[in-house]
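As promised in the previous annual report, we have extended the structural survey to additional targets. Below is the entry for 7-cyano-7-deazaguanine synthase.
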Amino acid sequence: MTNLSNTSTNTTSGALVLFSGGQDSTTCLAWALSRYDRVETIGFDYGQRHAVELAQRPILLEKCRAMSSTWDQKLGEDHMIDLSLISKISATAMTEDVEIVMQENGLPNTFVPGRNLLFMTVAATVAYRRGLDVLVGGMCETDFSGYPDCRDDTMKALQVALNLGMATRLKLETPLMWIDKSATWKLAQELGGDALVDLIRADTHTCYLGERGALHDWGYGCGTCPACALRARGYQQFKTAG
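The corresponding structure token record, generated without further manual editing, is:
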């Protein structure tokens, strides 16, 4: 196993990474492993249409451990939470087999109202129990689909609310907030070299439709949904700049 460089900026805190099995959350996991001595992961089964991402999670965690003895030592328990109630109280293209379209409110119907708010609240509860004081999420408002619960202001407000409600000093970290998908690929390369880029390309899942038939140069996916379009364009820009 290789020893990836430890660029730790905080060796006293423990981090809980919101880990879906996608490109962004895997990059965030590597980011957390480069900074914290103790890292745990949390995932959510909310009846998502692309549930294949959940099947990729244990594969990715195992391969991340194998990439680095340092990461292996730091990476702790994984938590899988049943949030199927989300699919029961919302009707979206992420939870139902419907066409992806724009809505009258200007948001795509892939937007799941309250999803990230609930994710962070549940993650904060688990972090409280586990003695972890940092939450790491892949939210981004630079290269995204316009979801309001991915915005920096939302995360900052949520951090205040969670700490007030639990009498904690929990910190919400969003390392991808101000970078585009090309820079996200670049960050992965900086954190784990070509090996991490290849892992993300071949083993993560982002496609909203759950398509894993053909492996494209940027990874698996239908190639047409918003998630695939962002990922493919970012990869092409990353390789061109490389």
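Strands lie at 14-18, 38-45, 75-82, 134-136, 171-173, 215-216, 219-220. The chain has one domain: 14-206. These points will be discussed at the next consortium meeting with the crystallography subgroup.
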